[in-house]
Amino acid sequence: MKRQAIGFTFMMSILILGSLNWTACKSKKAVTDAAKEETTATQPTTPPADPPFIAALKESIKGKENLPSEEVFENIKILKGIPAGRLIPIMQMAFSTSLGVKCNHCHARGDWASDVNPKKQIAREMWVMSGKINRELLPAIEGLQSPQPVANCTTCHRGDVIPKTSLQ
Ligand code: HEC
Ligand code: HEC
User: Fold this and answer.
1) Mutational test site, ligand 1, from 8, 91, 97, 116, max ligand atoms within 8 Å of CB
2) pLDDT value at position 89?
3) Which of 34, 44, 69, 101 could bridge across to 105 with cysteines, CB 3.0–4.6 Å?
4) Rounded to an integer, what distance in angstroms lies between the CA atom of residue 79 and that of residue 52?
5) Residue 93 has what DSSP assignment?
């Protein structure tokens, strides 16, 4: 129970950071859009629609968004307790965008629950590693600037599937 609560807090920090970035982008965009509208009177932009397979996935869990992921999806080992409605954005942001990959880098085509693709298990272990960094290793370092320092997938991967080890 305690482990789950800590996991959930860690999860939320990842999501909060993710959505803060997103909000920052959106509001910056809103400002530029507003400026554009003033000068050229263009139509306000609408957010891009989900690609069909994401829309289908969302449709398939309709009404069950607030249930824990493990009750809605078939093969959940690390994201237990996370509401099902949050799993898809986590897949899109933390797992795909931060590594610069598409869903099928980790998933077998046509079967989200399958573990046939070995990258999926690697991602689970990366999640556990990130949790350990955030719960144990970072808090043990004194004198950091942030009151609650966080390392997530983006911190290392920065859009690359193999993180850089040098700037050359
Ligand atoms: C870096 C690897 C990775 C990428 C990329 C990725 N996923 Fe996942 N996905 C996982 C892992 C790992 C799990 C299992 C989570 C767990 O065990 O709790 C999972 C689980 C899922 C599930 C639940 C399946 C079930 O029934 O158990 C869905 C649905 C899903 N992902 C959709 C997506 C979509 C859509 C994308 C692209 C936007 C995506 N994933 C990209 C690693 C990935
Ligand atoms: C502390 C740095 C660090 C963090 C944090 C981190 N990774 Fe990694 N990741 C690595 C390194 C290093 C590799 C190994 C790359 C190689 O093969 O040389 C790797 C490899 C991977 C691979 C295998 C890529 C491939 O195609 O071979 C996946 C998938 C992955 N990470 C997913 C994730 C996910 C998802 C997260 C967040 C939950 C994450 N990583 C967080 C450092 C990190």
Assistant:
1) 91
2) 96
3) 101
4) 24
5) I
Report CA(90)–ligand 2 centroid distance (Å). 16
pLDDT at 28: 46
Q: Read off the pTM.
A: 0.84
Give residue 141's identity as a one-letter amino acid code: I
Q: Which residue's CA is minimally distant from atom 6 of ligand 1?
A: 103
Q: Out of 1.10.468, 1.25.40, 1.10.287, 1.10.10, which CATH number does the structure's domain 2-39+50-157 have?
A: 1.10.468
Residue 86: Cβ within 10 Å count? 16
Q: What is the pLDDT of residues 42-79, one digit of tens each?
A: 566 777 889 999 999 999 999 999 999 999 999 999 99
